[in-house]
Design goal:
Blueprint (H helix, E strand, L loop, with lengths): L4 H4 L34 E3 L7 H17 L5 E2 L8 E6 H8 L13 E6 L2 E6 L2 H16 L6 E5 L5 E5 L19 E2 L2 E2 L4 H12 L4 E3 L12 H14 L5 E6 L3 H4 L11 H17 L5 E4 L16 H12 L5 E5 L19 H6 L10 E6 L14 H4 L4 E7 L15 H8 L12 H5 L10 E5 L15 H12 L5 H13 L3 H21 L38 E2 L17 H8 L9 H4 L2 E2 L10 H24 L7 H33 L14 E3 L4 E3 L1 E5 L10 E5 L6 E6 L5 E10 L7 E6 L2 E7 L2 H4 L13 E11 L4 E7 L8 E7 L6
Parallel strand pairs: 1-2, 1-3, 3-5, 7-10, 7-16, 10-11, 11-12, 12-13, 13-14, 14-15, 15-16
Antiparallel strand pairs: 4-5, 4-6, 8-9, 17-18, 19-29, 20-23, 21-22, 23-28, 24-27, 24-29, 25-26, 25-28
Helix pairs in contact: 2-4, 8-9, 14-15, 15-16, 16-19, 19-20
This protein binds 2-acetamido-2-deoxy-beta-D-glucopyranose (12 copies).
Subcellular location: Secreted
InterPro entries: A-glucoronidase_C_sf (IPR037054), GH (IPR017853), Glyco_hydro_67_aGlcAse (IPR011395), Glyco_hydro_67_aGlcAse_N (IPR005154), Glyco_hydro_67_C (IPR011099), Glyco_hydro_67_cat (IPR011100), Hex-like_dom2 (IPR029018)
GO cellular component, one term: extracellular region
Length: 837
């Protein structure tokens, strides 16, 4: 029987200063001191070397037990017999001191054994980091109020469990939404590595064992002597957490940094240069985990420049790191970004197989091909990449994105574990046998020595790490799934929630409900039926802009025209991509009848009037899903509001602000996408919502002084395509209208644009009552990639609730421009109770 403290004892107490830096390692109190009799009386950590993860485990156990139970324990690094202690060490150290431990016989690399029997706790790792993982597991149970006796072994499913951090040397982060780098500034590794060590602690607790610290679009100056010293400093800081450092390389470094005339991987001088630099790095970072290489992709140099194969390129690095046990992660994200949309058979999704399939078996044993989960690029819905099923003699890893590049920049709640699980659970039926992606990347399906997970995280200096408290469930889930891909998304989420917010049942239920609905909701209001995230692919990847997908060389096409939509990836008439899957799966995708609705437009080009299995037409599904998804986002606000007394103010306010933003931006998405396809197809919405907004007063129809009309581009990012901006960048504008709605209580919402480069001020009045004032300063508050235009990225909403309004009164908005922000306004909505539009 499991004994949950929470049911016996006082509920968790809220701790102060909840700025997010402690993430899920808060060690908040869950019980009263009198129950600490269930706890061990001492900690014995069987290693006295301070850089040892076993030593770290001792310190962590002390801090954790002090935080959770207010019980101060001493940590000894000397083995001794005692009736009440937590003993942590490697299997070797433990058996030397305490004799054989039969229960731990099946431990594998990085695995741990945990046994708790009241106040006798044994934590044994196969290696040092395994022991630390076991300590974190024990603490996680305590922090969740679970003191039930247990005894089990946990081994990882995959050896490679790394993060990728797309940090540039200047301190910026590509696709990072939480402030500047914790590793670099001004071209060099930071002197202060405290934050890097804190990050390593978080990662160790979810059993991550490597960090690639710099951007895959790598800069050769990372390899200067000064920066190599810096790498050593970072590696030293993260080593006590059992985490190894790795780096991304620029393929042209021998030329750009080394001064050679070439970077041809088969040129002996080039080979020698890499050997030399690798030796230099290992002299300073003896446990460097290896290299990550993005070559011949999106303008990056690579072996194809010299007519060498990608394997020639990868193997050059593999030779250099092999003597040190290093691994080369070689990205499969190789494609031509100048393909012709006029060619019906052209398909970026085909690039991976075309570039890599013929190289199967040609990579050295310490090379791992790192494959994005889908064939295109971290979209809200993709099938698993066919490359997973095609490489049988090559080790592979799956690349996932914790940072929400295409999924709302951490300004939208999108819990990603369900998306990842869907990919990891996809059965590609290679050789007509069970071939789940998770079993392929673990190495088990094709009996590969290596394999695993690369998660693009992109934490920054923000105290919340990712810019949003709720987004941290994704980082937590990433680590948990990389260890054990069979875990349930909801169970992972609930562990995270208890650790992050305490044991209150209502908090748990509410965050669970919001998070589990969040990916379907985002899919509903961004891109449905496998059409991809319909964001602006040519700019910030944040707000809606479906037209940006098509008619360019990037190949993220939707092929939408007046009558039809979707990529024809069939073999019989399209790009042939469906045929890149093993036959059983290829057959499913080839046939429109067997293709699941949620991938219909990924594989097939169909009329808008095509019937789905649900019975709806494609276009009506678009309309409905966008309304339903946006409604779900409105509900998140009410759900979060209900937790006000149960979550500390600091985090409650932060999250409330973001959920409110999401609710407003979900409407921007909804209306943009619906307007776009309504305009294109001219097919009306059966429910008559699209294009029909009876509660709105369009800014362009108000009486304007100091304001002028502005045609928004893309047109669908404005209600009725038009907004207003001030005439000049210095003088205020005033927009006025008579209220013709019946007298009553309304929520008054103003849709406006908040661009970077200025902080316009606004005032909303009804007759001479001031309803609200605000400033266009979201760029300081949201951390997402900003926009300099009036578009789907900058469009946003502010709402004033419960406003008394009389028929015949005058509504007035005064906008004071600032910098280059001309106080832009789209419309005002007067929303009766229960209506959001
Ligand atoms: C103690 O830790 C050091 C540093 O990690 C390591 O080299 C050594 O082997 C460890 N000793 C034991 C007994 O585990
Ligand atoms: C912990 O260590 C301190 C200092 O060495 C000692 O005074 C104290 O008695 C120890 N406490 C326990 C519970 O062993
Ligand atoms: C590489 O880093 C150096 C030094 O910080 C910088 O001057 C250079 O602009 C960077 N190159 C690129 C392509 O970012
Ligand atoms: C190093 O960084 C940490 C965490 O950001 C900070 O608390 C500390 O003050 C810094 N130390 C120095 C010497 O600047
Ligand atoms: C690397 O090259 C430099 C310059 O040619 C040389 O001084 C150094 O000894 C070489 N280092 C190694 C490890 O080969
Ligand atoms: C690569 O091969 C192509 C065709 O075989 C040839 O035209 C081209 O000159 C070669 N390029 C180099 C750099 O060797
Ligand atoms: C792949 O491995 C299988 C089994 O080990 C072997 O029969 C086959 O020849 C290999 N193929 C290549 C291309 O190396
Ligand atoms: C974190 O980012 C938020 C905006 O998302 C900002 O308001 C806050 O000041 C930042 N905090 C730190 C410590 O950088
Ligand atoms: C077959 O492909 C052509 C383009 O080559 C396209 O116009 C046509 O609609 C496709 N037919 C079917 C049945 O999908
Ligand atoms: C998403 O849209 C579908 C189809 O309209 C609907 O069944 C589902 O409830 C929606 N889910 C969410 C979370 O919005
Ligand atoms: C409001 O109504 C009054 C009286 O009908 C009219 O004179 C005025 O022009 C209207 N104002 C606006 C902004 O439409
Ligand atoms: C405007 O405000 C004054 C007091 O400041 C008040 O007497 C008057 O009734 C208000 N007018 C309207 C139309 O609300």
């Amino acid at each position: 029987m499991r004994l949950f403290l929470s049911t016996l004892l006082l509920a968790s107490r809220l701790v102060s200063a909840e700025d997010g830096s402690a993430a899920w390692l808060r060690y908040a109190p869950v019980t009263q001191a009198k129950n600490s009799r269930l706890l061990p009386a001492a900690i014995i950590a069987l290693n006295s070397t301070k850089s040892s993860p076993v030593y770290t485990a001792g310190q962590e156990l002390r801090d954790g037990i002090a935080g959770i139970f207010s019980k101060e324990l001493n940590v000894s690094t000397q083995a001794r017999r005692t009736s009440s202690a937590v003993i942590v060490g490697t299997l070797t150290a433990y058996t030397n001191d305490y004799g054989d431990l039969e229960d731990a016989e099946d431990l594998e690399e990085d695995g741990f054994f945990l046994s708790t029997e009241q106040d006798q706790v044994v934590i044994v790792g196969h290696n040092e980091r395994g022991a630390l993982y076991g300590a974190f597991e024990y603490l996680s149970r305590l922090a969740q109020g679970d003191l039930s006796p247990t005894s089990f072994i946990s081994n990882p499913q995959a050896p490679i469990r790394w993060t990728n951090e797309w940090n540039n040397l200047d301190g910026s982060i590509e696709r990072g939404y939480a402030g500047p780098s914790i590793f670099f500034r001004d071209g060099f590794v930071l002197e202060n590595v405290t934050r890097a060590a804190e990050y390593a602690r978080l990662l160790a607790s979810i059993r991550i064992n490597g960090i690639i610290i710099n951007n895959v679009n790598a800069n050769a100056t990372l390899l200067t002597a000064r920066n190599i010293e810096g790498l050593a400093r970072l590696a030293d800081a993260i080593r006590p957490y059992g985490i190894q450092l790795g780096i991304s390389l620029n393929f042209a470094s021998p030329r750009d940094l080394g001064g050679l005339s070439s970077f041809d991987p088969l040129d002996p001088k080039v080979d020698a240069w890499w050997m030399n630099i690798t030796t230099q790095i290992y002299a300073k970072v003896p446990d460097m985990i290896g290299y990550l290489v993005k070559a011949n992709s999106e303008g990056q140099p690579g072996p194809l420049t010299y007519n060498r194969t990608l394997a020639d390129g990868a193997n050059m690095f593999a030779r250099a790191v092999r003597p040190y046990g290093g691994v080369v992660m070689f990205r499969a994200f190789v494609y031509d970004n100048h393909i012709s949309p006029a060619n019906w058979k052209a398909d970026r999704a085909n690039a991976q197989l075309e570039f890599f399939q013929h190289l199967d078996g040609k990579f050295d044993e310490n090379v791992v091909v790192q494959i994005k989960y889908g064939p295109i690029d971290f979209q809200v819905r993709e099938p698993a990449s066919p490359l997973f099923g095609a490489l049988h003699n090559t080790s592979t890893a799956i690349e996932l994105q914790v940072t929400q590049e295409y999924l709302g920049h951490q300004c939208h709640l999108v819990y990603l574990a369900p998306l990842w699980k869907e990919i990891l659970g996809s059965d590609l039926r290679a050789d007509s046998r069970s071939s789940k992606v998770k079993d392929i990347v673990s190495g088990s399906r094709f009996k590969r020595p290596l394999g695993g997970y690369a998660g693009v995280v992109n934490v920054g200096t923000n105290s919340t790490w990712l810019g949003s408290h709720l987004a941290m469930s994704n980082l937590y889930a990433y680590g948990r799934l990389a260890w054990d891909a069979s875990l349930e998304s909801e169970a992972i989420l609930q562990d995270w929630t208890r650790l992050t917010f305490g044991l209150d049942q209502e908090v748990l239920d509410t965050i669970t409900d919001m998070s589990m609905k969040s990916w379907p909701a985002y899919e509903n209001y961004s891109g449905n039926l496998g059409i991809q995230t319909l964001t602006d692919i040519l700019y910030t990847h944040f707000g809606p802009n479906p037209a940006s997908q098509d008619n360019n060389g990037w190949g993220q096409w939707t092929r939408a025209d007046k009558a039809s939509i979707g990529m024809d990836r069939t073999v019989k008439n399209g790009t042939g991509n469906a045929g890149h899957y093993p036959p059983e799966v290829a057959q499913i995708y080839e046939n429109i009848e067997t293709t699941p609705d949620n991938l219909l437009l990924w594989f097939h080009h169909v009329p808008y009037t095509q019937r789905l299995k649900s019975g709806k037409t494609v276009i009506q599904h678009f309309y409905d899903a966008h309304y339903e998804g946006a409604d779900t986002a409105q509900a998140f606000v009410r759900q979060w509001e209900s937790l006000k007394s149960k979550v500390d103010n600091e985090r409650w306010n932060h999250i409330m602000f973001r959920q409110t933003f999401q609710a407003g931006h979900a409407l921007v998405w909804r209306d943009s996408i619906n307007q776009f396809y309504h305009n294109l197809s001219e097919i009306p919405d059966e429910s008559k919502r699209v294009g029909n907004h009876p509660y709105r007063i369009e800014a362009e129809q108000m009486s304007l002084v100091g304001y002028k009309l502005y045609s928004v581009n893309p047109f669908h990012a404005a209600s009725r395509h038009t907004a207003i901006v001030t005439n000049s960048n210095s003088s205020a504008g005033i927009a006025t209208a008579n209220i013709t709605f019946v007298s009553g209580t309304y929520d008054v919402a103003v849709n406006y644009y908040d661009i970077i480069g200025g902080k316009a001020r606004y005032q909303l009045e009804i007759d001479n009552r001031t309803i609200g004032k605000w400033t266009g300063n979201l760029e300081d508050k949201l951390g997402h990639a900003p926009s300099i235009y009036l578009d789907g990225h900058s469009a946003t909403r502010i709402t004033f609730k419960g406003v008394e309004v009389r028929h015949g009164e005058t509504v007035r908005i005064t906008g004071q421009p600032n910098g280059m922000e001309p106080a832009p306004i789209d419309y005002i909505s007067f929303l009766p109770p229960g209506v959001v539009d």
